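Internal QA ticket QA-208
Title: Verify multi-chain structure generation after dependency bump
Assignee: T.L.

Test input:
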Amino acid sequence: MAKKILIADDEQNIVISLEFLMKREGYEVSIASDGDEAARRIRSEKPDLVLLDVMMPKKSGFEVCQEVKSNPELQSVRILMLTAKGRDTEVAKGLALGADAYMTKPFSTKELVERVRSMLAEH
Amino acid sequence: MLSGTVVVAASFAYLLVLFAVAWYGDRRAEQGRSIIANPWTYAMSLAVYCTAWTYFGSVGRAASGGVWFLPIYLGPTLAMSLSWVVLLKMIRISRTYRITSIADFIASRYGKSHLLGGLVTIIAVVGMVPYIALQLKAISSGYSVLTGSDNSGVFPFAAASWFNDGTLYVALTLALFTVLFGARHLDAAERHEGMVAAIAFESVVKLLAFLIVGGFVTWSVYEGFDDIFARAFADPELAALLSLRTASSAGYGGWFALTLLAMLSVIFLPRQFQVTVVENVNEQHLRRATWLFPGYLLLINIFVLPIALGGLLYFGRGTVDPDTFVLSLPLAHGESALALLAFIGGLSAATGMVIVETIAVSTMVCNDLVMPLLLSTERFKRSDHPDLTGLLLGIRRGAIVVVLLLGYLYFRLAGEAYALVSIGLISFAAVAQFAPAMLGGMYWRGGTREGALAGLLAGFVVWAYTLMLPSVAKSGWLDRAFLDQGLFGFDYLRPEQLFGLAGLDSISHALFWSLTANIACYVLVSLARVPTGQEATQATLFVDVFSRGQDAPATFWRGSAQVQDLQPLVARFLGAERARRMFESYARERGVASIAELKPDAGLVQFAETQLAGAIGSASARVMVSSVVQEEPLGLDEVMDILDEASQVRAYSHELEEKSQALEAATAELRAANERLQELDRLKDDFMSSVTHELRTPLTSIRAFSEMLLDDPRIDLKDRKRFLGIIVSETERLTRLVNQVLDMAKIESGHAEWHNTDIDMRELVAHAVETTEQLFRDRGALLELDLPDSAPRLRADRDRLLQVLLNLISNAAKFVPTDAGVARVRLTCDVGQVRVDVTDNGPGIAPEQLGVIFEKFRQGGDERSRPQGTGLGLPISRQIVEHFGGRLWVQSRPGEGATFSFVLPLSPEAGNGPDRAMT
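Actual output:
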């Protein structure tokens, strides 16, 4: 059964590129364009992995991440955070909140695909 | 009636209590636990101002003149509240330079002049003798009223023979007492703690006694204030007393003169100088005394009118001397004990005054009259007598006895002429003569020795001629002819109508002429020549006492002196043991081990002289010190040099202070600037972080799609085209962003170029609308344009204004709802400005968003459908509008669309520019 991936980002073009990449890898893809929608979809769809942008309207990626990690039912959801803010503190904050991995934008598509693959392979 | 024995015994018992208080005060002072070092004692000691004259005489004065007794109390109250700074300065000067009397003060100020000191002393003695006589008179007449020893009434105590006269023994007893109080030992500071304690005690006794008698008269003899005043008003003669018209019978000038007189007296009376200045322990006490003392005066005056009216009502006019009402009213009601208490109160008022006054006067006599005479004998100058302390004490004791005997003599000779109050006023007028030299000395550098001498002399002579001589003549000891016809028959020399000045009472008249002569001579003679070095020195020390006070006083002296010479000199007048202690403590202050190591410098000489000044007066001290040191007199120029130097030092230190303050201010400014910089730095960081984010976002798409296209050749053509389109648009976005960031940076840093031309706003707005119409058509929205018929021209950068308009209109295009969107652009012309409003029917802006949309990278709107934008458009627009002196703002409510508006002022050349001139 194909793994389910949720793409949460408010930048339309980035969503398009990520969707294309993930589908090409054979994953089942759903999309959220703000933090609220992302949290809602994670709860209802329980994806295997979330590509979570930090700077999103309504709810930041950090808040969504915290929500997911504090919910026991969502323990299996992997989170890969994406951010355009490359500061070290952002990375540290994301990891401290329980994100499983972190990548800064612009990312290499190959690395991203590799990372997603390895994260999903762990289970 | 009381028996003489009882009265005498009670009086002696009271004096013994007084002595015990004084002894206790001295003892505590020796133990270093002063009982007078508090403002209450200080204020009570100031109340020595209230003498037997107050105690008995005010009632007499009220009985004859109604409220005419008041100026004597208004004066001090005014003086304390208005001129306490003067008192403070006097205290500071006297403490700093060890000045112990008014005579010494004036002598020291005008170049340590023996002549001046002597003159002041003579004036003080001549002026005070009648006053002391007054106290003796009060005691003796009080005694006779109490014992009824003479039925004839008023002045019965004076027996025919001197040796049988009780008053003489009163005088001698008081002399003995004063010697015991005030001249038991010598003190360089001339302070008498025990005496002050006793005086404060006496002030309390006389106040209580007077209040008790007043209370008795008011509530026991009569039925309260209402009763007394009602009865008084019922009697037309008494009612007249209570009206101010009677009181002003001497004219308002009389009131003024009397108040002024009392003001000067409370400052310059020798006994007031003694308690206020010399005996002052702490300058702070003066503050409290400025209201405590007037409070005391108020209390002691409450019952003056009731007693006076009560006495007049009871005895009727002309039967009993009103001066004795305080005693005779209780006696008449059979209250012997109360009468005795009243007498003790009067006794304490009299003794207090006599003790302090004679101590003060004896200090002057000793230091400013006798010592200079002794010093002028060669034999005395050479130190044949190693210890002169005994001699000094002897002189003082002698002076006390002599002054009191003089008082007695005056009492015998002239005491019959005037009622109590008039004698007191004569003394007050004499004391007022000190005012010009004292006040001038403290506040004017120009006063000279001759000026002070001339002023004092002139004032004194006029006083004697217009006030003293008439009083003697009225006593029948002089031919009265000159009173009525003038001296040598010259009409205009009549002493009480000098130069034809009539219509004033004798006191106001004398005060006017004596002070006029005094001030005129003081000022004119002083101006006649430049002060000498010595005078200038002292003038500076006195006038600038507050600014110099804390530092070592500038020394105006050059020469050499050996401690071996100076110490014995001080020892001669203060005793060997005392002198040794003084020099030792001075040596410790200077940080040397022993007296022998003291440097023979100016400071040492000054120290020795100051110590001596306390004991023998500054002028004598000067003479004595100069006899043992080799000194070179300083000329005025040199003194001025020293003064200059001192003032330069002051100026430098002032400058230094200013600089250090400036430094502090600069530090604070730097700190603030640094904080501002840090804040800017933080803003810059935020900006950079935002820019980075905004740059990375399009880069992310560009990189992702490029890599996908590169890696995967199998992507079909449709996707390929779509991806390339995205790459292009993201590249455009990136370019736009870079341009705008640069634009923003240029405008903010002031490096932007502005190409100003005259702009037709109608044309410009129309052009902007035309350019953006396609955007609205794409969304199926409407764009309305509302232009006025004409618009004034405006001078600005056309491209920049177009940029603003395009930004606002395209924003509206982004936010209007698809298919139902309506936007309206309106141009209006107000007076001196044009206004553009861009209104849309979009979602509106939440109140919390209104402020932030003009911040960089803060895009508004519903983010889900947020259109593409850099977040720099509005900030840049606002910068542009503000550059041309206008304002850009937004009004909106959520759900009701938004209106962005800006106004631009018409610059002058746009209003009347060449274009308009051509049309």
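Spot checks passed. The first helix of chain A runs from residue 12 to 24.
Status: verified.
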